[in-house]
TrEMBL record:
Pfam families: DNA_binding_1. The keyword Lipid metabolism does not apply. InterPro entries: ATL_DNA_repair (IPR052520), MethylDNA_cys_MeTrfase_AS (IPR001497), MethylDNA_cys_MeTrfase_DNA-bd (IPR014048), MethylDNA_cys_MeTrfase_DNAb (IPR036217), WH-like_DNA-bd_sf (IPR036388). Keywords: DNA damage, DNA repair, Methyltransferase, Transferase. It catalyses: a 6-O-methyl-2'-deoxyguanosine in DNA + L-cysteinyl-[protein] = S-methyl-L-cysteinyl-[protein] + a 2'-deoxyguanosine in DNA; a 4-O-methyl-thymidine in DNA + L-cysteinyl-[protein] = a thymidine in DNA + S-methyl-L-cysteinyl-[protein]. It comes from Alistipes timonensis JC136. One of its GO terms (biological process) is DNA repair. Residues 6-81 form the Methylated-DNA-[protein]-cysteine S-methyltransferase DNA binding domain. PANTHER family: 6-O-METHYLGUANINE DNA METHYLTRANSFERASE, ALKYLTRANSFERASE-LIKE PROTEIN 1. This is O(6)-alkylguanine repair protein YbaZ. GO terms for molecular function: methylated-DNA-[protein]-cysteine S-methyltransferase activity. It comes from the Bacteria.
Length: 98
DNA sequence: AAAGTGACGGTTA
DNA sequence: CTAACCGCCACTT
């Protein structure tokens, strides 16, 4: 299985469909794109995401927000996403059947 | 070519 | 729950 040239764009398209107040994990997005095991590559796609893509709705499998991006948590909380005491987003807001 | 690095993930202790 | 480990993919030293 090999990486499509438009992998980043495919990921961005999926992220663009995540409703406000819901979140998704990197691995989840990789699977939805038909590329299981490419979670790390998805992270790279997020770092290169153009303005307009709600990449703040993407967290890691533990619900932790992106390192160095403190605003992400505030953006999510403003949409109603709850955070646990340990700093991780409440995973009940994960997208399902999508 | 080899080793280091990072918006990751699963398992184990 | 946290931390350590290892596996993972692509990029940079």
């Amino acid at each position: 299985m090999h990486l499509p040239a438009d992998f980043d764009a495919e990921i961005w398209d999926i992220v663009a469909q995540i409703p406000a107040g819901r979140i998704a994990t990197y691995g989840q997005l990789a699977r939805l794109a038909g590329m299981p095991g490419y979670a790390r590559r998805v992270g790279r796609a997020m770092a290169a995401a153009p303005a307009g893509i709600p990449c703040h709705r993407v967290v890691n499998a533990a619900g932790r927000t992106a390192p160095g991006w403190t605003a992400q948590r505030e953006l999510l909380e403003a949409e109603g996403v709850r955070f646990r005491r340990n700093g991780c987003a409440d995973l009940t807001h994960l997208i399902d059947g999508f």
